Amino acid sequence: MSDGAAVERLVEPHAGVTIVTLDRPAARNSLGKNLLGELQDAVAALHHDRETRVVIFNSAVEKVFCAGADLKERATMPEEEVGPFVERLRATFTAIEQLPMPTIAAIEGAALGGGLELALGCDLRVAGNKAVLGVPETSLAIIPGAGGTQRLPRLIGLGRAKELMFTADRIGSERAEEIGLVNYAVEGGTATDRALDIAARIAKNGPIAVRLAKKAASAGMQADISTGMDIERGCYAQVITTKDRLEGLAAFREKRMPNYTSE
Q: Catalytic pick from 32, 109, 113, 114?
């Protein structure tokens, strides 16, 4: 595995699932220029991947998901480069958020600062019981700058998000589950296994329908409910003409498992 981000497309029994694994052990998966570039390339390729039905982001480095920005690299970065680099981070996590298929962050160990912001770009999050999550940027006299100030309040509510940002507190997986920051808190070392279980339950469903359900929900949440209903209407119209919809009806009638082909 390279010292960066590796992409693995799984086969049966997990066909349709792709895992993007962060693997920069010397720097605890901190997001420097090289790792960020590999992550950008992986996400860009996945955006047009018709075979992948679910993407899981995880880590090959023990005790860390992603420690955030590479502060050693940042310390040597000219001031005029800092803003553009943070913009690259922001754009990358937005690209993850905008992937057409569902995404799951499987978090073991530290997910701090940019590491948590990466996870916030995913649709679902699973955290092992040794996970530590937080946005500690204010302790460094900066702010979460890769989407954290926007995605965190939308996920857990404004008051709780402000508390985490203002205090720079770090929380464990059980508290994260209580406040809705993660979907599941699981035994240490099993986050990827739980993510694979969730992915299997997603991948068996109609892939076009799943993608459009994601689009309708994600886009609708950024609009008023009337506009959201219009978005839902447009997405539903797109599934009506698919072969998968007819296959789903036939499978139900014939009492068998459907064979969806993304058509």
A: 114
Nearest of 125, 143, 109 to residue 57 by alpha carbon: 125
Quick one: three-class SS letters along 186-219?
Answer: ECCCCHHHHHHHHHHHHHCCCHHHHHHHHHHHHH
C-alpha span between 53 and 210 (Å, rounded): 9
Over the Cα atoms of the chain, what is R_g?
19
Residue 6, by phi and psi: left (phi above 0), alpha (psi -120 to 50) or beta?
Answer: beta
Q: Six-digit token pair at 260?
A: 């969806």
The single residue of 16, 105, 113, 117 carrying the catalytic annotation is: 117
Residues 36 and 88 sit within 8 Å (Cβ to Cβ): yes
* Whole-prediction pTM: 0.95
Q: Can you read off the two tokens belonging to residue 205?
A: 């469903």
Give the DSSP H or E segment for 44.
helix 33-47
Residues in contact with 117: Cβ distance below 8 Å, sequence separation at least 6, in sequence order: 89, 93, 135, 144, 146, 147, 148, 151
Position 75 scores a pLDDT of: 86
| 137 is an active site residue | yes
Catalytic residue, chosen from 5, 42, 67, 69, is: 69
Catalytic residue among 38, 108, 137, 232: 137
Active site residue 69: yes
Return the pLDDT at 1. 44
- Average pLDDT across each block of 10 residues of the chain; the chain has 263 residues. List them in order: 83 96 94 94 96 97 93 89 93 98 98 97 98 97 96 98 98 98 98 98 97 98 97 98 97 96 95
Question: From edge to edge, which strands make up the β-sheet containing 4-9?
Answer: 4-9, 17-23, 54-59, 103-107, 124-128, 184-186
Amino acid found at 235: C
- What pLDDT is attached to residue 71? 85
Residue 2 pLDDT: 55
